[in-house]
């Protein structure tokens, strides 16, 4: 007998969620060396902030009435999505470019990325007059390519196989005049590439962005808009970064790792300075975690400014490189799956980043449907489109994985807003499913006139809206003259879905299979 209510993943949203092969270290970056990790201090971060502040946006830190209500504390979000290239990556990109010598700037910069970092480098490379080349993997979208090209970057696509602004700008500003002229190469999958392209353009540093092939066309175009040279290379970000590193060695340019270069980390840490200027006292900070640069920068600043403030790194269960690093006591290569939070998908925690934070933070991993639900809530409650990587802090609150006392101040970093429209559509559908506002129904009925109309009429009378419908006369085992009708319905929420299930089960009894996503969540 068919059960009347099943928890199932039958509703398939195309998220390209395939598991990847185990990653390998494809190159050895002297600036991210496990045998010689680098340290960072609050003084370094303050110096970086003085260096980059004229080229980045001091973003708002706003209170969320909705999340404050459901979490039972005071929840704020730092809107790094308001940076010019859409993420915090600009901070590190600009800082790294400004740290280049004049000679190194002339040589240009090559980056391997699949989105935010490439855009950040393209933008700031354009501003700083540093030639930028973005190498993108072959899965990136045309939009990702065009975004890099818009900023004047050279884009290379090889068919063979954000907060970011702060770090990008800081890294560029740390370059000597000689190093700036040589240019910079970066490997990224989005926000960091954009940040480097933008600030490279501002600082007149040539930028090359290497992006993996799965990034969107918009991500590529944004890097090009800022004058960066964009290369699409590799089936994942690890291959893109390896190509970027090799290209930098070949050209005599600088390779700036957007996830572990110490100047990028310092630039990202400037977010913490702004938070404490805006809120004075903070009990907990929720930080999205990919390679770890943002977490390391914020941890360094916070633990000197306010030692009792708790820092929680939030990663996706699809890519748990920091969780595995803490378990093993060192960064290790991990398997990962594609995710709504693609900007957090890295095969290994950064060596410098891990060394900085290993005894100072907690790590929480969130599931995909909570990320989608968080994106949906931000759209509906705050009218903000946030990328999956930027929504993980809210996802941790929705899943009740982070708790705080009543009245405590909790800040989550909205690290980026660079979300592709098609991906956002999938996120909304996945969020509706997690919110019990999408259900899938199978009904086995006789193949006779009026049977389908009766089912749809019953559904309509409950107030549910049919979104998709299909009929199968062949691939089932319930008789030659039986139809299997499958439809997806949109409801007002869990109670409405259960009402629909109850009414349909009264009519169709054992001939009904009703699918809902059972999600424990705050409402």
Automatic annotation (TrEMBL):
Transmembrane segments: none annotated. Keywords: Lyase, Pyridoxal phosphate. GO terms for molecular function: L-serine ammonia-lyase activity; threonine deaminase activity. Residues 52-157, 159-416 form the Tryptophan synthase beta chain-like PALP domain. Its cofactor is pyridoxal 5'-phosphate. InterPro entries: Ser/Thr_Dehydratase, TrpB-like_PALP, TrpB-like_PALP_sf. CDD domains: Thr-dehyd (cd01562). One of its GO terms (biological process) is L-threonine catabolic process. Pfam families: PALP (PF00291). This is L-serine deaminase.
């Amino acid at each position: 007998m068919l059960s009347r209510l099943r928890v199932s993943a039958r509703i398939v949203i195309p998220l390209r969620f395939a598991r990847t092969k185990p990653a390998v270290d494809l190159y050895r970056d002297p600036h991210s060396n496990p045998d010689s990790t680098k340290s960072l201090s609050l003084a370094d971060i303050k110096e970086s902030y003085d260096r980059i502040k004229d080229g980045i946006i001091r973003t708002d830190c706003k209170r969320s009435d909705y999340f404050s209500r459901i979490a039972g504390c005071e929840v704020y979000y730092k809107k790094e999505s308001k940076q010019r290239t859409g993420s915090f990556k600009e901070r590190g990109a600009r800082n790294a470019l400004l740290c280049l010598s004049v000679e190194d700037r002339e040589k240009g910069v090559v980056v391997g990325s699949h989105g935010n970092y490439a855009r950040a480098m393209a933008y700031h490379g354009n501003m700083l007059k540093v030639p930028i080349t973005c190498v993108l993997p072959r899965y990136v979208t045309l939009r990702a390519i065009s975004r890099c090209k818009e900023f004047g970057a050279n884009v290379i696509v090889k068919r063979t196989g954000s907060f970011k602004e702060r770090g990008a700008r800081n890294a560029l500003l740390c370059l000597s005049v000689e190093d700036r002229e040589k240019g910079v190469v970066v490997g990224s999958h989005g926000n960091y590439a954009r940040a480097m392209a933008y600030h490279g353009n501002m600082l007149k540093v040539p930028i090359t962005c290497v992006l993996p092939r799965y990034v969107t066309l918009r991500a590529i175009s944004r890097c090009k808009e800022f004058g960066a040279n964009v290369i699409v290379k590799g089936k994942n970000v690890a291959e893109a970064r390896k190509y970027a590193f090799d290209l930098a060695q070949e050209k005599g340019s600088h390779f700036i790792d957007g996830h572990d270069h110490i100047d990028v980390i310092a630039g990202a840490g400037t977010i913490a300075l702004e938070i404490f200027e805006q809120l004075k006292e903070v009990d907990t900070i929720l930080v999205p975690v990919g390679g770890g640069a943002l977490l390391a920068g914020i941890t360094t600043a916070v633990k000197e400014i306010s030692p009792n403030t708790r820092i929680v790194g939030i990663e996706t269960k699809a890519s748990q490189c920091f969780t595995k690093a803490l378990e093993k006591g060192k960064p290790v290569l991990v398997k990962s799956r594609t995710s709504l939070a693609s900007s957090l998908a890295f095969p290994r925690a950064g060596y410098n980043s891990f060394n900085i934070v290993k005894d100072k933070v907690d790590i929480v991993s969130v599931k995909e449907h909570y990320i989608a639900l968080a994106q949906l809530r931000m759209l509906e409650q705050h009218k903000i489109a946030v990328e999956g990587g930027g929504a993980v802090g809210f996802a941790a609150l929705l899943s009740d994985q982070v708790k705080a006392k009543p009245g405590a101040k909790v800040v989550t970093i909205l690290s980026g807003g660079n979300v592709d429209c098609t991906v956002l559509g999938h996120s909304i559908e996945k969020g509706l499913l997690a919110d019990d506002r999408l259900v899938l129904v199978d009904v086995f009925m006789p193949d006779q006139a009026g049977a389908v109309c009766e089912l749809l009429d019953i559904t309509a009378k409950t107030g549910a809206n049919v979104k998709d419908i299909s009929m199968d006369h062949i691939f089932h085992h319930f008789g030659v003259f039986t139809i299997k009708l499958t439809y997806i319905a949109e409801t007002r929420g869990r109670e409405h879905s259960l009402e629909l299930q109850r009414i349909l089960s009264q009519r169709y009894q054992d001939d009904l299979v009703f699918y809902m996503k059972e999600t424990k969540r705050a409402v």
